[in-house]
Amino acid sequence: MKSKVQRTESISDLKSLFEKSQAMFLTNLVGVNSEATTSIRKKIRDAEGFVAVSKNTFFAKATEGTYCEDLFSQLKGPNAVAFCFGDPSAVAKIINDFGKDNELVKLKGGYAEKKKMSVAEIVQLANLPSKEVMLASVLATMLAPISSFARVLESIREQKEAGAQV
After folding, report:
1. Are 61 and 119 part of one and the same domain?
2. Cβ-contact 113, 22 below 8 angstroms
3. How many angstroms separate the CA atoms of 58 and 18, rounded?
4. Domain shared by 81 and 149, yes or no
5. pLDDT per residue over 70-115, tens digit each?
6. Do 107 and 97 share a domain, yes or no?
7. Residue 110 — φ and ψ, nearest 5°?
8. Residue 100 and residue 102: Cα distance in Å, rounded?
9. Under 8 Å between Cβ of 83 and 110
């Protein structure tokens, strides 16, 4: 049993996580063995995230007066929150994929950039390509006309050289 000071510190730590995170996803890790739990925590940590498992009352007190209070004020049963400090789609993808392999793990809702997200929206976010893949695609699209133009110029130069040799 935690002392009042320890409870206050836990709530303060959670409040700090809620304030600093770009996104958060409510889920549960109940019934998941410790090896799998450690694995998902590591993957989320590698994706610039953090998983917090705490009492529902701590989550509720940490979110009092914040934009996400409504999601956390009426929690029932065991819950965990995955906080994201980097690319939200990466953390959402990890949780979604983990849920596919482990039917006990379910997404329950979340927020991204202070906007409430339904489970369907989080799944949609999880199915997006990674930030790096999207940037590479945009870059390739932007470079395509330039490289085509360069090939046309090279072709013209080759034709002129071939014509000059004949």
Report:
1. yes
2. yes
3. 12
4. no
5. 888 888 888 899 999 988 999 999 999 998 888 888 889 999 988 9
6. yes
7. 170, -170
8. 6
9. no
